[in-house]
Specification:
The structure is a single chain. Helix content is 31%, strand content 21%. It is globular.
């Protein structure tokens, strides 16, 4: 399964580091173009390559991690996603003010899903701090927990399998309506927790 990453900030870069550590290839892209990613891909070569947003979105699974206010522009003009998996790793809050976005009572994943028509959206990789995603998932004799949720069972299985391959303990929280609310930051009860599962 090919993997694309849209966004080279803390979460996108941490996800790229986790992939490279496990020798999994991906294309990473941002709004500034491939040239701006030279230092990131140099550190993660040969597994992580720089590309355009259009190239990254052609992958079977695409993780999107972009500052909340910039998501609409980052995804504008892209063709229908055609049933491909899109991982929503975003939080409706951003630096420097860290003021929660106005969602009018909706979940951030609901808002996000409307921006990726035709995609199978899975919420994941948003609730752990970036250094924990990039670092060794083994902790205290167990494996660090990564939650995920979504409405398409097959898409969730694919994301869950990737999470396990990266060395994390994946826990399926159910649908976006249920799981998305639990991991939404701010507001959900789970983003503040760094949990370990023991086998």
């Amino acid at each position: 399964m090919s993997i694309g990453i849209i966004g080279s900030g803390q979460i996108g870069s941490a996800f790229a580091q986790a992939l490279a550590r496990n020798r999994i290839k991906a294309i990473v892209a941002n709004s500034r173009g491939p040239g701006s990613l030279a230092s990131l891909v140099a550190d993660l070569s040969p597994y992580i390559a720089a590309g355009t947003v259009e190239e990254a979105t052609q992958a079977d699974m695409v993780l999107v991690a972009v500052p909340w206010s910039k998501i609409p522009a980052a995804l504008a003009g892209l063709p229908d996603w055609g049933g491909r998996i899109v991982v929503d790793a975003n939080n409706p809050i951003e630096a420097p003010l860290f003021k929660p976005a106005e969602l009018h009572g909706r979940l951030s994943s609901e808002v996000f899903a409307e921006l990726v028509p035709g995609a199978k959206v899975v919420k994941a990789f948003n609730h752990l701090q970036p250094h924990l995603i990039a670092g060794d998932p083994r902790a205290e004799g167990g494996n660090r927990v990564l939650f995920y949720s979504g409405d398409d069972p097959q898409a969730k299985r694919e994301v869950g399998a990737l999470i396990e391959r990266l060395g994390f303990a994946g826990i399926d929280l159910g649908t976006l309506a249920v799981g998305g609310k639990l991991v939404q930051f701010p507001g959900g009860p789970l983003p503040s927790l760094n949990l370990v599962r023991f086998n």
